[in-house]
Amino acid sequence: MAARDRVVHLMRQLERAACRCPAHSNTFHQGAGAAACTVRKTDYAFEMASSNIRYGEGVSREIGMDVRNLGARNVCVMTDSNLSRLPPVKAVLESLSHNGVRFRVYDSVRVEPTDTSFKEAISFAKSDSFDVYVAVGGGSVIDTCKAANLYACHPDADFLDFVNAPIGKGRPVTGALKPLIAVPTTAGTGSETTGVAIFDYEPLKAKTGIASRALRPTLGIVDPLHTLSMPERVAANSGFDVLCHALESYTALPYHQRSPCPPDPLLRPAYQGSNPISDVWSRHALRVVAQFMKRAVRDPEDLEARSSMHLASVFAGIGFGNAGVHLCHGMSYPIAGNVKTHTAKGYSVEHALVPHGLSVVLTAPAVFNFTAPMCPERHLEAAEILGADIRQVKMKDAGPLLADTLRSFLFDLQVEDGLSAVGYSKDDVPALVRGTVPQERVTKLSPREHSEEDLSEMFLASMKLY
After folding, report:
1. What pLDDT, on a 0 to 100 scale, did the predictor assign at position 52?
2. Angle, helices 276-298/376-385, rounded to nearest 10 degrees
3. Looking at beta carbons, which pairs linking 6-10 to residues 24 or more positions away fall under 8 Å?
4. Segment 146-195, tens digit of pLDDT
5. N or C: which end of the chain has fewer CB within 10 A?
6. Buried b / exposed e across 363-394, counting CB within 10 Å, b at 16+?
7. Does the pLDDT value for residue 127 go beyond 90?
8. Which residues, 6 or more positions from 193, have their beta carbon under 8 angstroms from its beta carbon?
9. At what angle are helices 364-371 and 376-385 packed, to 10 degrees?
10. Do residues 443 and 325 touch, judged by C-beta distance below 8 A?
């Protein structure tokens, strides 16, 4: 009886403790999820998902063994034309050959992919019976490989079937995909951890994407030696993506305020809103950025700094891959999609380009000045991590302080002076707003509701930074 009493006492203690937990304290957690959604408009749960990650200098040499262990007979390797001649791709191909793995290489991935370039990669994937995919490159390569894997495994699907609504149909992915191993060569996108593939949808001149946990790579091979090949501006723009991933996911709408409440767990989106687990990853990524990003940009041989930023990209990827991003990314898509003549330093491409990380960070001061009133304590904490003195700062000044801290950070890293420096003027604002409106997958995660007029004001405030 004494033992039984101890068990009953322990269970009651656990029940009381669970009731005090902020994530489970509400009465709607007591019933089944579907039942809860019949009475709730907002969600009540979040789901943690991430790829397996292997990190270490030289781990790319192990990929042949990984593929062999998967029982692969025919591997599709995807990269871009620039990387195809560089050490990261060479290391992967040598490992595959050494382990007797048959493979074909697709090296025509477009930097900042489009629906057209996605479809070309999908055609290549459908041309053979690949049983494993390997992506070697930055976010453009990894995202393209995700899409190729998805549509090769769903050969009867229309391209827009899985594309995010409202541009596409946003259908859930129900069929199994082939294993995908991602080998990131930049320290920015975090695509090796997420189920998201982003591209420019040319008919609307705006970015959109596909978001499903089914797209997540089976394994991310994070080899810090690969980051040593990044030019200075590529390192900077990749780092800005990490910075904004961390800031946006940490300040996103909390998961239990996101609507609608899904009637089926399968319909719960990959981007769910900030939550206690994503907060840990996002904060830590921000601290690493504050400590190492400037060193990583200024000295390409600083292995400690570049390795740390590579890990920060993974950390932030796990954070935003579950919490999501919001206005910086939503507004970045038309900035990248409507580019006119801007040529990006450090990028060997023949088309006009505003690199993703740059298009994201240019609006960051205006965005966080706008969102701060909804969660000022988080904005103040972010400013402090980035080096601001917050001891005498009032909550109402959290937005201006974080905005000024970001401007100083960007100025030190020689970022272009706002949207006007990459070819935009106030006359372009209506088109930029129109391109942002369809990005509901991310913009609805803003902690502060916004109108088209609010978006216009943020774009105008971003024309000049300094």
Report:
1. 93
2. 30
3. none
4. 999 999 999 999 999 999 888 899 999 989 999 999 999 988 889 999 99
5. N
6. bbbbbbbbbbeebbebbbbbbbbbebebeebe
7. yes
8. 50, 51, 53, 216, 217, 220, 314, 317, 318, 321
9. 140
10. no
Given this model, what pLDDT does residue 350 score? 79
pLDDT at 250: 98
| Separation of alpha carbons 460 and 454, rounded Å | 10
For the segment 387-438, what is each residue's pLDDT rounded down to a tens digit? 999 999 999 999 999 999 999 999 999 999 999 999 999 999 999 999 999 8
181 in Cβ contact with 67 (< 8 Å): yes
Taking the C-alpha atoms of residue 90 and residue 96, their distance in angstroms, rounded to an integer, is 10
Contact by Cβ (8 Å): 268, 43 = yes
Rounded distance between C-alpha atoms, residue 237 and residue 232, angstroms: 9
Pairing outcome for strands 180-184 and 132-137: parallel
Q: Would residue 386 be called left, alpha or beta, if left means φ above 0 and alpha means ψ between -120 and 50 degrees? A: alpha
Enumerate the H helices of 372-416 as residue ranges: 376-385, 398-412
Q: 71 pLDDT band (50/70/90 cuts)?
A: very high
C-alpha dihedral sign at 61, 64, 70, 76: positive
Residue among 206, 272, 260, 151 at smallest CA distance from 436: 206
How many angstroms separate the most distant Cα atoms in the chain?
80
Cα 193 from Cα 317, distance rounded (Å): 6
Question: Does the structure show a pLDDT above 50 at 22?
Answer: no
pLDDT digits (tens, 9 = 90+) for 255-281: 999 999 999 988 898 899 999 999 999
Give residue 381's identity as a one-letter amino acid code: E
| Strand ranges across the sheet with 219-222 | 52-55, 219-222, 180-184, 132-137, 75-78, 103-106
